[in-house]
Design brief:
The protein has 14 helices and eleven strands. The chain is an alpha/beta fold. It has two domains: 225 residues, Aldolase class I (TIM Barrel, Alpha-Beta Barrel), CATH 3.20.20; 77 residues, no CATH class. The strands form two sheets. Strands 1-9-8-6-5-4-3-2 form an eight-stranded parallel β-sheet. Strand 10 and strand 11 form a beta hairpin. The radius of gyration is 18 Å and the shape is globular.
Length: 318
């Protein structure tokens, strides 16, 4: 595997070799995926969004048994059990927290008191500034190309990254629509110091999603995803019967309550973990169109880094 020539601020902050962070993805980011990414020199994250606190603790311990390298957790703050999950992670000795879906002020106090690195996910320049003001060590800026829950403003990664790099002094991690080494180079050229990759890591051997879900992503094109449910909680979904129902309801002017009733509970689990490709919620990014295989993480990391360095070499020659 090709190694970068020197560490940047973000790699030094997280204690990793390569400027690649795995996204914390509901029902896709368990211990096996996080450990595999960390073993390959990136930062693996265990996603708390789909786990009860006791399972979350088990996954942290399992990951620790699979890697000696740093791992972190992703903690969406919108869930009712987010405080319990935070306490579980602290009790397990986790030192790297990526928070999202809420104000970082809700969690940063106890995390900084425990000596943790705190990184928050933002979908706008204004929110990135608030992350720095709150005391975050870095910020993930996520363009609306990303899969799963998303910003309402539909700001693309190519616009959002330079906006935020100019607005804050803390390291910026680019996310949304990144699945190749060439795209990593583009993000770094815009001022990012690392990338966060979700969808591409979800569709690996170690990703905990159902085989049917992974196969559906491989078969999909970039135009097969769409950001929906903006009146409720915006989410980018792969085309299926459920998404068609959501879009039909939105076209009728549905309000938040009507969308929430249609969504119900358990659709994300049904779709991504259990493989219900018709009525499940299939969260994936626009990079679905670039995903055409299901490799092991080690192979994927080698590919990403080779693409990254060969692209840099080509550009330096031109």
């Amino acid at each position: 595997m090709t190694k970068p020539r020197k560490k940047n601020r973000l790699c030094s902050l997280l204690g990793i070799e390569h400027p690649i962070v795995q996204g914390g993805m509901i029902y896709n980011s368990g211990a096996k995926l996080a450990a595999a990414v960390s073993n390959a020199g990136g930062l693996g994250l265990i996603g708390a969004g789909s786990m009860r606190p006791e399972l979350f603790g088990e996954q942290i311990r399992k990951a620790r048994g699979l890697t000696e390298n740093p791992i972190g957790v992703n903690l969406p703050l919108l869930y009712a059990n987010s405080r319990e999950c935070l306490e579980v992670a602290l009790a397990e000795g986790v030192k790297i927290f990526f928070t999202s879906a809420g104000s970082p002020k809700r969690a940063i106090g106890p995390l900084k008191k425990a000596g943790c690195v705190v990184v928050h996910v933002a979908a706008s320049r204004e929110l990135a500034i608030k992350c720095e003001d709150a005391g975050c060590d870095a910020v993930v800026v996520e363009g609306f190309e990303a899969g799963g829950h998303n910003g309402r403003d539909e700001i693309t990664t190519m616009v959002l990254v330079p906006e935020c790099v100019q607005a804050v002094s803390i390291p910026v991690i680019a996310a949304g629509g990144i699945a190749t080494g060439e795209q990593m180079v583009a993000a770094m050229a815009l001022g990012a110091e690392a990338v966060q990759i979700g969808s591409r890591f979800a569709v690996t051997v170690e990703g905990s999603g159902h085989a049917k879900f992974k196969d559906a992503v491989v078969a999909a094109g970039a135009g097969d995803t769409q950001l929906v449910m903006k009146a409720h909680v915006p989410v980018r979904l792969l085309k299926n019967e459920f998404r068609d129902q959501v879009m039909a309801l939105e076209n009728q002017g549905a309000d938040r309550e009507e969308l929430a009733d249609l969504l119900g509970s358990g659709r994300a689990r049904a779709g991504m973990l259990e493989g219900d490709l018709d009525q499940g919620e299939l969260e994936i990014g626009q990079v679905a169109g670039l995903i055409d295989d299901i490799p092991e993480v080690a192979e994927l990391m080698t590919r990403l880094l080779d693409q990254y360095h060969s692209t840099l070499t080509r550009l330096c020659r031109e």
